[in-house]
Amino acid sequence: xxxxxxxxxxxxxxxxxxxxxxxxxxxxxxxxxxxxxxxxxxxxxxxxxxxxxxxxxxxxxxxxxxxxxxxxxxxxxxxxxxxxxxxxxxxxxxxxxxxxxxxxxxxxxxxxxxxxxxxxxxxxxxxxxxxxxx
Length: 134
What we know:
The protein is an alpha+beta fold.
């Protein structure tokens, strides 16, 4: 007979070495943004399942695009079993938007931010022209 701790330790020992590097595709769900330490937590889901995902602050700081609820992504990481709760999650090493490169998405997000702030586009040109006597 095994205790809960013993069983969970055996599950951890069996699973983690088998899933040191996996690529998983899914949609971001329950995204809450960075916590006070800068870590990101969300679920990756498809039509039939959901998986908890953790992005440590060191990895999150290297992202070239903003993660958003509902975004389709491809995640590279390793499986982690958190023994105190008997839960497993995916620890992210790399994440890319599905279908479009990270640089292209980062560019589009920056462009939208600059347009919204009036620093790019027609609004910028008009205010620039008003400040000069032609």
